[in-house]
Amino acid sequence: MKPSAALNLTAAVPLDKLREECGIIGIFGHPEASKLAYLGLYAQQHRGQEAAGIAAWEGQGFHLHRSLGQVAEIFTPAVLARLTGENAIGHTRYATAGDGALSNAQPLRVDCSKGPLALAHNGNLVNASALRSELEAAGSIFQTTSDTEVLLHLLARSRAADFETALNESLVRLEGAFSLVLLTRNALYAIRDPRGFRPLAWGKLENGGWTAASETCAFDLLGAEYGGEVEPGTWRRFDSHGSAVFRYAPSQPSRHCIFEHVYFSRPDSQVFGRGVQASREEMGRMLAREAPADADLIVPVPDSGVAAALGYAAESGIPFRFGLIRNHYIGRTFIEPSQQIRDFGVKLKLNPVRSLLAGQRVILVDDSIVRGTTSRKIVRMIRNAGAAEVHMRVSCPPTVSPCYYGVDTPSRKELIAATQSIEQIREYIGADSLAYLSLAGLRQAVGEEPAAPTRFCSACYTGEYPTPGLNLETAAYGRSCR
Hints:
Layout: E1 5-8, H1 9-12, E2 19-20, E3 22-28, H2 33-43, E4 51-57, E5 62-68, H3 71-74, H4 77-82, E6 87-93, E7 108-112, E8 115-125, H5 128-137, H6 148-157, H7 163-171, E9 176-183, E10 188-192, E11 201-204, E12 210-213, H8 217-222, E13 225-229, E14 234-239, E15 242-247, E16 256-257, H9 259-264, E17 270-271, E18 274-275, H10 276-290, E19 297-300, H11 306-316, E20 324-326, E21 333-336, H12 344-349, E22 350-352, H13 354-357, E23 361-366, H14 373-384, E24 389-394, E25 407-408, H15 416-419, H16 422-429, E26 433-436, H17 439-445, E27 456-457, H18 459-462
Parallel strand pairs: 16-27, 19-23, 23-24, 24-26
Antiparallel strand pairs: 1-21, 2-25, 3-6, 3-12, 4-5, 4-6, 7-8, 8-9, 9-10, 10-14, 11-12, 11-13, 14-15, 17-18, 20-22
Helix pairs in contact: 5-6, 6-7, 10-11, 10-17
């Protein structure tokens, strides 16, 4: 028998989910800027749980603190007391495989010919490798493996006389997804790529200062008034004179990440101009119309499937019940039992309510199936609790392609829907039936008219990428936030 051991939770109990890699926050003109940045990151902890950092400007220079771990663990009162100044930016991230080095945590800070700069990035530059090779050949020395650092080198090497001209020249060379907060000695810039892949909103603080964040749930915690989205292809500058907008690139067809509405964003956020909770409930309603089943209970996989399950129940008239209870109080480590327990990782997080499930025909609702391993364990758990039937319903289409725009996605060969039919997936997970929401149904659920041109990127469901040079067979890219 192997001895008991304390194990890292994220490594030992991988959730079968796609993961957003970053959340960003910017604060300008507040005497406790770093504390507000901390609160903004705390509200966006779901967007990244491996590392976080805050850079604060105090007149003469930056105070920077970055560390591995979660926001509340990193930013103790003593740490925040050292991050003085009225302007700050923050970042929380997931690490990609083999990429958890502290050197890759953000914000990144440099002193260059354009002055002191700090930068935080949500997204992924698909041409980062080519730009990096070009810059290295010209003498640039990189300190990280992050694609974000490419922008700092472009800025530093620009021959433009002023910072904003250098910024515009640098941004137009980037291809892919980037929502950025950039802090200089006298201004905060909120920047979005021309297609608007990743969300970025701005707002006004109660004291007259400004903020920008990946999600509006951060504004709720800060007491900030929502101002709107940073428009794709623009930057918005916040300084002592107020706010100003500049378009640095021509308009392109919007390609907002549709998975922000399916899973990534918090339900209480407004993303791409629409409430996330409303979208998810509508996904459930559409799913009930497209894939009904005779059943006694609707049971969500908590927490990701709750909103869609509510919509499915409302549309179908079948009672909604929390037949699975999630343990919300698991730390980052746990003690592994000396004797192997089947499906231990899933049992640690979820437990069935046997009195509700026994003898019942259950519709199990979740937002996605990635590898299928967790869904298989949950279906087995519900059957072992006595359910007579288990019908799996998924509130998005099958995920068949990796994302190159800022999502930590398994390779195509690891995506079960890329290599298996729906019937084969049903057999693998052990459900009595399996159905996914159609792409047309998903588009309608997020507010698009059926005949209208799409505003969303759905490459993970179609393999059709909106940036040039990417396809299923060949793609040169650098993972975001590395």
